[in-house]
Each structure stands twice: as C-alpha cells, then as structure tokens.
Amino acid sequence: MTKYQTLLYYCYSTITDAEQFTADHLKFCKSLNLVGRIIVADEGLNGTVSGTVESCQAYMDTLHADPRFAGIDFKVDDVEEPSFVKMHVRYKTEIVHSGLRDPNIINPQQKTGIHLEAKDFLAMKDRDDVVVLDVRSNYEHSVGKFKNAITLDIENFRDFPSKINELAQYKDKKIITYCTGGIKCEKASALLLHEGFSDVYQLHGGIIKYGKEAGGEDFEGKCYVFDNRLTVDVNAVNPVVISTCYNCGTTTAKMINCANPECNEHFTQCDACGEALEGCCSEECKQHPRKRVYDGTGYYVKVPQPVSALKLSRKVTETTNLENAG
C-alpha cells in the first residue's frame, strides 16, 4: 500500500499580501509534516510537495477549499519515500521566472493558448499543420522530449522570450507548447499570442498529466522533475532512451548533478562513469576540494553557493568558440 505521495501543481491567482501568505503557508506545510518547494508570488503559486498520503490529501483539500485555489489540478505520484528533505516556501516576483512582468504582455489569468487535454494533443500532434514546441531548458529536453518536437537552446525559461524570432517560420502553423506540468506554457503561449502567433495551444497539465492520461505515447526518454527523483518514467506505450552519457557517449537515461557544488551541472552519466568520476562531470571537478560524497543518486540538498568561476569560465569559452566559428 502506498505510504507517500508527491504533488506537482501551480495556480495563477492573485494573492493579496503574498509575502505574509508565504510565511503562513510555510507554517501550514510544516504542521502537516510535508517537505517540498513552493514559490509564492502576487500572481499565484507554484509547488511540489511530498509527504504521507493523509498529509497530501489534507493539503489538497485545504487549498481546494480556498476560492483562490479551487481550480488547482494536482498531479499526484505515488512514491516510496518523500521526494524532498526539507520544506521551503519562498516569495518571488514570479512563480516561473520569465523576466516579463508587464501584465499587458503576460497575464495568464486573462489570455493564454487553448488548453488541450491529453487525447486532443495525441490526435493533433502529428498533423502537417502542427508544430509541437518544447519550452523547457536544455538539460530537461536532453533527457526526454516528445518525438519530432522543436526544442530551443535555452538554459533557463527566462531565455525563452529571446528565442521568439527563431520561431517566426512557424507563424502559419498551429503551435502546441508543452512543459513538465503546464506552468511555463501559460506564459510561453501568452507571449506567442502577443507576438502575433494566431493559432496557439498548450498541453494541459504538461508531460506529467499526459503520461497518466495517455500512457505517455511518443514521449521519448524520461521527464526531468525538480526533486530528488531527478527524472521519472512517462511512456508506458512505446518507450525509448534518447540521452547519452556526457562522458563516454553510452546510452543512458540517468541524470545527475555534478558532485562539485561549485559546478552542480545537470547532465546524464552512466553508472560506470559515475563510479570512475565519483559523480563529477570531469576530472577537474573530481579534484575539487569541496566535492560532495557521491551515493549513486546524484541528488544533493541545495545550499547557498558562491558564483561558480568554473561555470563562468566555461561560458566565456563557449561564447568565444561561437564567435570564432562565426
């Protein structure tokens, strides 16, 4: 019998005095012995929480009883153990960072793409007049994506607006956006509509809900999630593995964080390379004095870190190489 669950959800709904709500909500979550990560903003909630079945049910019932959050569509996973170690509830300016806070441009409470349920997405996705667009980051779509989906070279969702011009060639098509749970699509589809795309849709509930309702058909690889599971299976119909080991190129679906906390890179790594490099992405990181102990999972509880000189140097090198290539 299932003892624990993990809930994934979001809700765009105006929260008055959101900073006070943040403090109160943290106390409420702790009273239920939940663990997880919730972002609170004036525009709504974005959370993943985990705990006993009873605690999760009490949490869902309480939010649904609040008129502001009555419409939340919780994605519920049965898990063997809680998917987090601690409970964090934080106030931020957006529940998903787009860098666009002008409500005249982005306001999911007023205008977004048409929501498609799983069966409708399945019926539309392979049509010639349809483009399926992944709005997630590189490390997410590298480990799994829909077959034939368009992906963008972005490190964070806040980079999405800068990629709009690359999508201009699809303005005469029907665009269907998708992401993990649907939250990014609310803003991505709103921005596409603002930029003159007329036929815009989004997969309601994202990859996770599609996996539950349509068996995940044609989702290739695994789905990255923002908890200690790192990735989850989605496709029970025609699964394949599309990712390869960052170090040796062997096919693998295992994604980890680099054991060097000043790197903390998301990458796929086979077990053999994980053992040889002790969970690091490179020999350089393996020799780092602050390297964390690798337990085979590649998941580490986040602690505040200084700006990574290693990541910055890699960025500079990549930019220089691109400029030289051009």
TrEMBL record:
Question: EC number(s) for this protein?
Answer: 1.14.-.-
Please name the Pfam families in this protein's record.
Rhodanese (PF00581), Rhodanese_C (PF12368), UPF0176_N (PF17773)
Q: Which InterPro entries match?
A: Rhodanese-like_dom, Rhodanese-like_dom_sf, Rhodanese_C, TrhO, TRHO_N
- Any GO BP: tRNA modification
Which key words are in the record?
Answer: Oxidoreductase, tRNA processing
Residue ranges constituting the Rhodanese domain according to the UniProt record = 126-219
Q: What class of enzyme is it?
A: oxidoreductase
**One MF term in the entry's GO annotations:** oxidoreductase activity, acting on paired donors, with incorporation or reduction of molecular oxygen
| Catalytic reaction list | uridine(34) in tRNA + AH2 + O2 = 5-hydroxyuridine(34) in tRNA + A + H2O
What is this protein's function? Answer: Catalyzes oxygen-dependent 5-hydroxyuridine (ho5U) modification at position 34 in tRNAs.
Q: Which family does it belong to?
A: Belongs to the TrhO family.
Q: Which NCBIfam families match?
A: PRK00142.1-3
Record protein name field: tRNA uridine(34) hydroxylase
Which species is this UniProt entry from? Mucilaginibacter paludis DSM 18603
